[in-house]
Amino acid sequence: MDREKTIVRTSLIGIAANVLLAALKAVIGFLSGSIAVITDAVNNLTDVMSSVVTIIGAKYANKRPDKEHPLGHGRAEYLSTAVISVLVTYAGITAIVESVKKILDPGEISYETLQVVILVMAVVVKIFLGTYFVKIGKKVNSDALTDSGKDALGDVFVSSATVLAALIYIFTSFSIEGYVGIVIGAFIIKAGVEMLTDTIGDILGKRPDAELTRNLKETICEMDGVYGVYDLILHNYGPEKYMGSAHIEIDASKNADEIDVLSRKITHTVYAEYGVVIEAVGVYARDDKHPETSKIRAKVSDIVFSHDYVMQMHGFRVDYENKEIYCDIIIGFDAPDREALYDHIVKDIAEAYPDMTPCVVLDIDASDM
Questions:
Q1: Per-residue pLDDT tens over the stretch 54-100
Q2: Is the pTM of this model over 0.70?
C-alpha cells in the first residue's frame, strides 16, 4: 500500500503541474500563433494522460489475488506503461502533421515578453518534475513513473527549443516554428517507441536484473552444504513480484530430512532478504566417492568447454548401473546455432565414452543468458 500511495501521490503532482503548463502554453500558443508552443502544450497533455494511466495501473496492480488471478495483478502496471507509450507516440505523430501544415501555411506570429518568460519558467518546472519522477520511480521500482520522469526530462529539450524559436523570431522575424514542431514531434515519437519496446520486453519476460540474480546465488551458496546454485529461473508478475526456482548442488549422502530443512531455509532466507518467492528447490547430488567419477567429470568438462559459446556445465552425475552420464550445459544465445553445437557436444562425449550414454540437457539460467 505504501508503494501504491507513493505512486499515486507522485502522479497527482505530475497531473497538477502538467495541466497548468498545458493550459498556459495553449493560451500562449493560440495568442501568438505559434505551432511550436501549441505542440509543446499537447506534449504536456500526454504527460497528464500518462500520469492518469499510471494511477489506474498502480491501483489495479495492487488488487488482491483472486481465483482467476492467483498470482495477483502486478503485470497491470506493464499494460498501463504500454498505453502511455502509445499515447505518447500518437501525440508525436499529430505534432509532426500539424507542424508540416504550419510550414506550408506559416500565418502570423506575435510574441509578448511575458509569454517568453512563462515558457522559460515552464522549462525549469520540467527539470524539477522530471528529476523528482525518476527519483521516486527508482525508489519504488515503478517503470511507469521512471519512464514519465525520463519523458519529462526529455521535454526540457523540447520546451527549450520552443523558447529558442520564439527568441529567434522576436530578434530576426525569421520563423522556424514549423521545423521546431517537427523536431519536437520526432522526439516525442522516439520516447514513445522506446517506452513501448521496454514494456513489451517486460510483458514477454526479459532477463531479470543481473545484480539481483547474482545476489540470490551468493546468498544461497553461503549456506552450509551448498556447493553451487544453478538453473535459476525467475518469473516476473509485476514490479517487485518475482517467483522462481533453482537447483542446488549438495553432497549425495544427505537424506530427505536434511534436504527438506535446507530447502526451507533457502526459501525463507531469499524471501526475507529479497522478497523473491522460490517455489521449488531442485537438487543435484554430488557423488565423489566412486574412484572414476572425478576423472570422468574432468574429461567431460574438457570436452564441453573445448567448444566456443559454452558458458557453464553443471549437474554432473554418472549412473554406473545404467551406464549413463548426466550433465546440463548452457550455451550462449550468441552462438550461431545452439542446437547444432549441442548435438556436436553430445556426439563428442559419446565418442569419448562409447560404452555409456550421454544424457545432456541444453539448459538456461537467468543469470547466465
A1: 777 767 767 777 777 766 677 777 777 787 788 778 878 887 887 78
A2: no
Per the model's pLDDT, the better-predicted residue between 324 and 206 turns out to be: 324
Distance CA 344, CA 247 (A): 26
- Read off the pLDDT of residues 266-302 as tens digits, 9 standing for 90 and up: 999 999 988 888 988 999 888 777 778 889 999 999 9
> Which H or E run contains 20?
helix 2-32
- Cβ–Cβ under 8 Å, residues 133 and 148: yes
Q: What is the DSSP letter of 105?
A: S
d(CA 29, CA 95): 13
| Among 161, 204, 174, 199, residue whose Cα is nearest residue 84 | 199
Which amino acid, 62? N
Residues 6+ apart with CB under 8 A from 184: 36, 39, 40, 43, 92, 95, 99, 158, 161, 162
Q: For residue 254, what is its C-alpha cell?
A: 544427505
- Contact present, 29 and 44 (Cβ < 8 Å): no
Cβ-contact 129, 17 below 8 angstroms: yes
Sheet with 310-319, edge to edge strand ranges: 310-319, 324-331, 357-363
Separation between Cα atoms, residue 6 and residue 54, nearest integer Å? 12
d(CA 156, CA 165): 14
Please give the grid coordinates belonging to residue 14.
505530475
Give the number of residues written for the chain.
369
Comparing CA positions, the residue from 139, 147, 182 lying closest to residue 161 is 182
